[in-house]
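Reply to dn_fold:

You asked what the input looked like. This is it:
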Amino acid sequence: MAKGSAALAELTDWFHRLPGVGAKTAQRLAYHVLTLPAEQAKGFADAILAAHEKIHRCPKCCDFTDGELCGVCSSPSRDATIICVVETPRDVLALERTNEYGGVYHVLHGAISPLGGVRPQDLTTKELLARLEDGSVREVIMATNPTVEGEATAMYLSRLIKPLGINVSRLAYGIPVGASLEYADEVTLLRALEGRRAL
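and this is what came back:
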């Protein structure tokens, strides 16, 4: 970075802090912001500030919302007796794109990771258990990611929930559409076999 461009260096650094943004992409984004008309640059900055001021966690499911409750929790057409537990708000969006799931969600905001310093109490575990106290929930679907951390989180929560007499299920994982069996690892193939269904 040339001397005298401290503001550009700082802008680049902020973009570089975003997940998945490397140094070159951060620099490209910073330069792009500089080419925006002042009104658009201000709009971009205002959108970031407004998101921080208005968006909060839904008091029921812990997803992000700018209302009192999120759209799913406030919908009378959703089946509140089925809760799908996910790691992040992005997972809710992914499942909603299927247009097949009619229950509600619970967002953990992470997964248990002893190496990463994430403990069960760092997640929204307490809030999930509070939702199960009244006995109205009949099934909890564990939709955590198929990673070591996701599996550990699903197992931990399952051990807490099963004694409450609630059915706990896990999403089936397997071969993605368009993939070849020869390139699938053993765990993926095992999950595919376990999650098979009749045609």
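The first strand starts at residue 56 and ends at 57.
Hope that clears it up.
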